[in-house]
Amino acid sequence: MKSQMFLRSVIQFYSKPSWMPRPYSSGNTEFNISGEVISILAKKKPIEPALEPLVPFLSQKIITSVIKDQVNRRLGFRFFIWASRRERLRSRESFGLVIDMLSEDNGCDLYWQTLEELKSGGISVDSYCFCVLLSAYAKMGMREKAIESFGRMKEFDCRPDVFTYNVILQVMMREEIFFMLAFAVYNEMLKCNCAPNQYTFSILMDGLYKKGRVGDAQKLFDDMTSRGISPNSVTYTILISGLCQRGNAEDALKLFHEMKSGGHTPDSVAHNALLDGFCKLGRMVEAFELLRLFEKDGFVLGLRGYSSLIDGLFKARRYNEAFELYAVMLKKNIKPDAVLYSVLIKGISKAGKIEDALKLLSSMPSEGVYPDTYCYNAVIKALCEQGLLEEARSLRLEMSETESFPDAFTDTILICSMCRNGLVRNAEEIFKEIEKRGCSPSVATFNALIDGLCKSGELKEARLLLHKMEVGRPASLFLRLSHSGNKSID
């Protein structure tokens, strides 16, 4: 799904209207031109000089048709590279088609062979030809290859344009290890006098917000506006979502109004981000007031919005209202997903209705939704809080037999509860199971067991465990574990 979303966002950069008049529009003429192109591809070497006289008669439709019908993929790639030099012949369809061809067996190797062949023949290529290659690598999850290919553009005397930079920046911002490299590429872009556009800033700001670097994202926004670039709907939505995720819903709402007054129509992502932002802050009155205003503008509450509101009501201990809203949602034939089930199970458990939570958990597969780790952890935590440790362990065992394996949070919940109830030996057994699975216990898990050992007077074992936590692992790993915090016991 993520790769498809990435592909759609890349292709939209190249959706340009055909501004040239088409000399012929009849189906028969297009068929004849397509046939002539296919004949040239089969008989002429090199193909480029022979194709030039046909340029006035070509259309985006003919380009796509020829590529689709070409059995020899290398010839198809070469024709695409030749045709894409002319902006009026570029289209979403041909761009997406070539990405599919590259994704097939040895497709990228054949494309590189085509590029090398063109270089040997003294035929230049432009950055658009590399954009399609970078996009294909990204679609296949081969981000290192995409970055390597971007670096090789200079071998072909090909200078990246703003669209190419946007594609590679989007690739880099999706991987933690390439995050800083993305900003080095952005600085290179500026040094090369390649002016960034709205998409460039949107990509970078989105990455910064997701990393929690709100100040840097806002500086980048200021930089964008100082360059005379007005934010578009995508930019505004990213800013609104980022501010809401960081608990700054009020500023997000101001931006929302600014967005509307600037003539931009907010989409469901912006509406849902604001609803979620106010719900997370526990400001349910304002959340429902916003919903009423949004609905006046034509917004239709969907699964994402219902999930945020139901979660907010549960957190505010307004259980009856949460159940009522869920019933309204079901009447509208909106089916819950794993996220909403997790919200429901957690809310029902907090309301003290453990049996109902267990029933809901067991009913999920029959509804076509399978419980994830979050669903199981919510019930296990509730069972532990009520002292039902055997039931909690049984559920953990059931969880191990599904695709939702116990994680560090599951084990920390159980170890904390067992230590609180004086079952330190049982807690140690679970701790050993974690290590047998080849997993590294989190700092919170270590802390829970160390605390339990100390309270039971087993100070020697506690000191050994502390030493193991601090010394018995690489420092870098220890730092990473330290960031895990106590999410499982919040």
TrEMBL record:
Keywords annotated in UniProt: Repeat
Family matches, as SUPFAM superfamilies: HCP-like (SSF81901)
PPR repeat start-end pairs: 126-160, 161-196, 197-231, 232-266, 267-301, 302-336, 337-371, 372-406, 407-441, 442-476
Source organism, top-level taxon: Eukaryota
PROSITE patterns: PPR
Signal peptide: none
Name recorded for this polypeptide: Pentatricopeptide repeat-containing protein
